[in-house]
Amino acid sequence: MEQALGGSQALTLSFVGSHASRLLAFNFFQPSNNVNGACCFFITQNGLTADFESGQVQFRRRLSQGLTALTSYTWSHCIDYGSSNYVLGYQRGSCDFDVRHNLSGAFSYDVPNVGHSRFLTALVRHWGLDNRFTARTAFPLNPVGNDFIGQLGKHFRAGLDLVSGLPLYVTQCASPLLTGPAQIPCPGGKGINPAAFSPVPLDSNFQPTRVGTAGRNLVRGFGMWEMDTAIRREFPIGELLKLQFRAEAFNLFNHPNFGVIDPSFGSTTFGEATATLASSPGALNSLYQQGGPRSMQFALKLVF
Fold it and tell me: How far is CA 184 from CA 143, 157, 188, 190, in A?
């Protein structure tokens, strides 16, 4: 649904969804006793599903009186059966890339020429401001204990049980650098509570006896927000040629965005952030990337 708001603005409401069925399930079976050198069997079946639903709101303003803007918000939920890696068992839950709330906005404003003074006009004309803001909630995280191996040789990374009555998140984390019960603030002010999980009972071979009650992608990591701003000025050279100067700041407020969280239960840093968002993908340089520290650049552009 779309509604005009005056002559230069519009509001759009959308529902976007998808359903996929009869997706391939690639199963792996290894007999407990090899007969005549037989190793294993691969069985391909149909039957997995994936669902995505989202509600979207968009506001846009076309260029009018020097201002153009675009803002959008999305609420969404994605559910599937997890990785397509045939070694891992299929568990229905939130998608690995499921983000519930996503907000983005941008505007560009050309400062109007003011005054009749030649000096003032030369000083303030041809200036402009560009701004972009992005924010989203966290991706899901799957705490990892000992893998449970099912009947078809599938590995289920769900060897943990939930402990009832305990919060999933904490704001104080145990410091591996100190002894005793000393607590320090978690990186980013949030961590997963180790006490909220317990390992599944093990058999004589030290293997989990069942899938744990802590489901797939049960907890969430860190969200992010960032504002990027640019100030520009144009210097006309001719009718069809102009020189543009830009000063740009990425992550203007130098807001720390944390990324990777240690998911390994039993690790001294379990549930704690171990890297910022820009460093998490293993990039060579975190500057100018989403979630990186504040960085600035200056540029000259010839527009024709």
Answer: 22, 29, 12, 11
pLDDT one-digit tens code per residue, 226-258: 999 999 999 888 888 999 999 999 999 999 999
Q: The tokens of 210 are what? A: 């069942």
Longest dimension (CA), the chain: 97
**Model confidence at 156, in pLDDT bands (50, 70, 90)?**
confident
Name the E strands within the chain. Answer: 2-4, 9-29, 41-64, 67-80, 93-94, 101-110, 127-136, 140-141, 148-149, 155-156, 160-162, 169-170, 172-174, 183-185, 191-192, 197-199, 219-220, 224-236, 242-250, 295-303
Per DSSP bridges, beta strands 41-64 and 67-80 are antiparallel
DSSP state of 144: B
Q: From the CB of residue 259, how many other CB atoms can be counted at a distance below 10 Å?
A: 20
Amino acid occupying residue 97: F
DSSP E strands in 30-66: the ranges are 41-64
pTM, full prediction: 0.81
| CA 193/CA 187 separation, integer angstroms | 13
> How far is residue 88's CA from residue 154's CA, in Å, rounded to a whole number?
5
**Cα dihedral sign for 59, 64, 65, 69?**
positive
Closest CA to 137 of 55, 224, 218, 64: 224
Please check whether residue 200 is in contact with residue 210, taking contact to mean a CB–CB distance below 8 angstroms: yes
